[in-house]
Amino acid sequence: TTSRPRSEALYKEALEHIVGGVNSPSRSFKAVGGGAPVFMKRGQGAYFWDEDGNRYIDYLAAYGPIILGHAHPHVTAAICRAAENGTLYGTPTELEIEFARMLKASTPSLDKVRFVNSGTEAVMTTIRVARAYTGRNKIVKFAGCYHGHSDLVLVAAGSGPSTLGIPDSAGIPTSIAHEVITVPYNDLAALDEALARWGNDVAAVMVEPIVGNFGMVMPKPGFLEGLCAAARRNGSLVIYDEVITAFRFHYGTTQTFDGLPSGTDFAAIEPDLTALGKIIGGGLPIGAYGGRKDIMAQVAPLGPAYQAGTMAGNPASISAGIACLQALQEPGTYARLDQLGAALEAGMSEAARKHGIALTINRIRGALSTHFCDHPVTNYDEAQDTDGEQFAQFFRLMLEQGINLAPSKYEAWFMTTAHTDDDIAFTLQAAERAFSQMAR
Ligand code: PMP
Questions:
Q1: N6-(pyridoxal phosphate)lysine-modified residues are where (predicted)?
Q2: Residue from 58, 241, 272, 338 carrying the catalytic annotation
Q3: Does the pLDDT value for residue 67 go beyond 80?
């Protein structure tokens, strides 16, 4: 059992100066019963050490980017080299070309790309570009998919399948929420209904092709194919938000993923625009968007859609991204992540069964999500309809045993190339003890 007096003290102090004590609300422990989050001091490989000297096996992976583990030597060296040559130029560099080539080689739909600083910016801009290109204003998104914190995508479903959105945050005008239509993921009939009603106004359908934001959820066979076909028929663009999925399951995006054994033919469908982030920055801030040449020609300085950034394409982020992608090209990387994920899934399922805990695990290679429920999770309603208190208890019991998870029942566990078989075995022992306690 860990004791964390320094985290407690630092949290008190942080609350005095930083709103809520955290620089992103997902880091607070609000969703798991409150209290001080753990203040980490150092990360190395699969491990974190907190301010009190406790060690944790980390499956948060910073919400996804840290797929190589913390402080991977190849990435660290690239960052140091970049820093020695100046971190920010405000001019073009050759590095940006090299990185753009790497992204394009991984994903044929990316004729042209632009680098930005976060997933939020990437998504926000794809919407502007889609609106500029189509001359339409509305977008369709899917309930429970998170696309960053910009106005248009921070909108929840209205009260029925064919109603306009309602703001998910204070400070978003209803008029903006009314430009968004939210339909259930994996539900083509609802999408058809929305397009039948508002189709002429819909600039784009925005989707996480594989969901990472209410657990890991695969598209049902035919869903993405049907979505793309419906959007095309309607003259709307298709935007893939691949901020979580890019380079997660294989070297590339979902657009080049074999997807087995899901039944979706990912390679047969192509979005018009794609948003990227997380892994492609190797742990430094980054985002990118790209797509078809004629659509991307809308962007300034070529076209009328404005998007800019003082920090965009900075040599440090680009160097870290190149190094990360280089390391991911090592043969066997994704098979290894898959193997780690499979071992964790099998062991946890078995332990949950043994202790009579209802647990649905969704896993796609090295990413998995744990849902305390006895039904499948294929959309946001099903993900919400799980036992949050049980998750909170599990989260705390795991933390006490040195396992760091995201403090939310919706977030995934991410395997990294730094995790070892021993780490998995240790984690499974901890899970076994947690389930045993929860069963009491
Ligand atoms: N899109 C998706 C699918 C995401 O998961 C996230 C972040 N979790 C974002 C966009 C926003 O990215 P960022 O936090 O870098 O702004």
A1: 278
A2: 241
A3: yes
With CA atoms as reference, report the closest residue to 381 among 157, 227, 220. 157
Classify 73-328 by CATH class: alpha beta
* 63 among known catalytic residues: no
**Residue 146 catalytic?**
yes
Q: How high is the pLDDT of residue 262?
A: 87
Q: Whose CA is nearest to atom 12 of ligand 1?
A: 119
The domain limits of the chain are 5-71+331-439, 73-328
CATH number attached to the domain at 5-71+331-439: 3.90.1150.10
**Which residues does ligand 1 sit against, CB inside 6 Å?**
63, 118-120, 123, 146-148, 208, 212-213, 241, 243-244, 277, 287
Read off the pLDDT of each residue in 332-346 and give the average, rounded to a whole number. Answer: 98
Ligand 1 centroid distance, CA of 408 (Å): 15
pLDDT score at 303? 98
Q: Look at residues 302, 238, 285, 251 and name the one whose alpha carbon lies nearest to residue 109.
A: 238
How do strand 55-58 and strand 112-116 relate by DSSP bridges? unpaired
Distance 209 CA to ligand 1 centre (A): 14
pTM over 0.80? The answer is yes
pLDDT, tens digit, for every residue of 316-325?
A: 999 999 999 9
Q: Per-residue b/e over 379-399, b at no fewer than 16 CB within 10 Å?
A: bbebbeebbeebbbbbbbbbb
73-328 matches 5-71+331-439 in CATH topology = no
ipTM of the complex: 0.99
